[in-house]
Amino acid sequence: MADPKGFLNHGREVAETRPAGERVRDWNEVYVPGSLLPIISKQASRCMDCGIPFCHNGCPLGNLIPEWNDYAYREDWSAAQERLHATNNFPEFTGRLCPAPCESACVLGINQPAVTIKNVEVSIIDQAWDRGDVAPQAPERLSGKTVAVIGSGPAGLAAAQQLTRAGHTVAVYERADRIGGLLRYGIPEFKMEKRHINRRIEQMRAEGTKFRTEIEIGRDIDAAKLRKRYDAVVIAAGATVSRDLPVPGRELNGIHFAMEYLPLANKVQEGDYVAPPLTAEGKHVVVIGGGDTGADCVGTAHRQGAASVTQLEIMPRPGEDRNANQPWPTFPMLYKVTSAHEEGGERVYSVSTTHFEGDEDGNVQFLHLVEVEFKDGKLEQKPGTERKIPAQLVTLAMGFTGTDQENGLVSQFGLELDARGNIARDADFQTNVPGVYVAGDAGRGQSLIVWAIAEGRSAARGVDSFLTGASDLPAPIRPTDRALTA
């Protein structure tokens, strides 16, 4: 363990963020560079030799958190990164983007602020890159088997890296023009600079993974033909169908899905545009949806110079402390202030959009809403609470409903779906079509990055067993596993 008295001697400290007024003028990550290293040893020392580390239960990857906390406390960065990489292909992604269910399950969190596990994780991997400890791990011999991975998000990349290292020849197919999936075009630059993706891609290329961009399976290549070309296929296409809002006025100009809005801002940072074709500059912006994607829209609108930003959420505002029905070590629904919220804007809870109002040219100008409340388990409108707010750009960030079926991927493979509309799979992540596997949101439904990586690693074991008859690859989760809840 780390310092036996660490949790008694040191309080919780987190990464320092740059002043809001400064960071909204650029697209760099919001944290002060280098602010973690001076404090991270003491923070890692707060890991308390709890006997049963429930942080393992909170993390689907089974991260060896007490072990790398101890190494970080001792500043043995090489050993720390080895333990970190033992269970996680891309800790620089999860260390920046994961909401840290491990911290919600931290034993210290029962009566004190939890260990800053996420900050320790990102410190370890950043040190590993800076020290040159992250190197390609090419296989010693090739199996002669070929695998196609459809989708280059965290699930697809994790599956591809595991299978490449097992000796198979892997090609990743991505319909966008760059590798990364939602990591590339759904996550704003201020949350994770894309250089972190780029260097992982270079590592994977050096290991032998092939990448094919701007190819959509189902449209550009028939899925059935792809299956004949490869010995196995992993579908990691995500749950990319956005939830819509079918109310009067939805057809007006200026109302867009979040995933129509966010990628264009990222393409500016990639150098594809001087200015985004869709911008919040000078506009009254309304973001519908109170989750992380909504917060990404808020932060993006701030940086584009919006006149105002309002975020709407149909549910009541969560509390700042755990409810009795969300006890430790479950992941609680708490009021969360992200870096984007620190930068300004208004958050409105318990409201529902009734309709949009536009001008004579068909452009949205106002959003009409009404307050709502739960009665007898049902959501009901409160009479007399109707009002309208200015809205010249509206982004719909209400989540996703499943994988894309319009491109023909599901029908051409002949895949079966489960009751929720996700691609069905067995205990080995194999679909009803032999040799075709599914990992990530396409099989699980919308979930967290840490679950996507865990799914990719687990599906890789299933594929490896299918191709060779046995596998030494780890499988941290089963398809039926779910987050720790009450």
From TrEMBL:
Segments traversing the membrane: none
Signal peptide: none
Biological process annotations from GO: glutamate biosynthetic process
Enzyme Commission numbers on file: 1.4.1.13
Metabolic or biological pathway: Amino-acid biosynthesis; L-glutamate biosynthesis via GLT pathway; L-glutamate from 2-oxoglutarate and L-glutamine (NADP(+) route): step 1/1
InterPro entries reported for this sequence: 4Fe4S_Fe-S-bd, DPD_II, FAD/NAD-bd_sf, FAD/NAD-binding_dom, Glut_synth_ssu1, Glutamate_Synthase, Helical_ferredxn
PROSITE patterns given in the database record: 4FE4S_FER_2 (PS51379)
Catalytic activity entry: 2 L-glutamate + NADP(+) = L-glutamine + 2-oxoglutarate + NADPH + H(+)
Keyword annotations of the record: 4Fe-4S, Amino-acid biosynthesis, Glutamate biosynthesis, Iron, Iron-sulfur, Metal-binding, NADP, Oxidoreductase
Cofactor(s) this protein requires: [4Fe-4S] cluster
Gene Ontology molecular function terms on file: 4 iron, 4 sulfur cluster binding; glutamate synthase (NADPH) activity; metal ion binding; oxidoreductase activity, acting on the CH-NH2 group of donors, NAD or NADP as acceptor
Residue intervals of the 4Fe-4S ferredoxin-type domain: 38-69
UniProt cross-references to SUPFAM superfamilies, sorted A to Z: alpha-helical ferredoxin, Nucleotide-binding domain
PANTHER family noted in UniProt: GLUTAMATE SYNTHASE [NADPH] SMALL CHAIN
Designated name of the protein: Glutamate synthase [NADPH] small chain
Gene: gltD
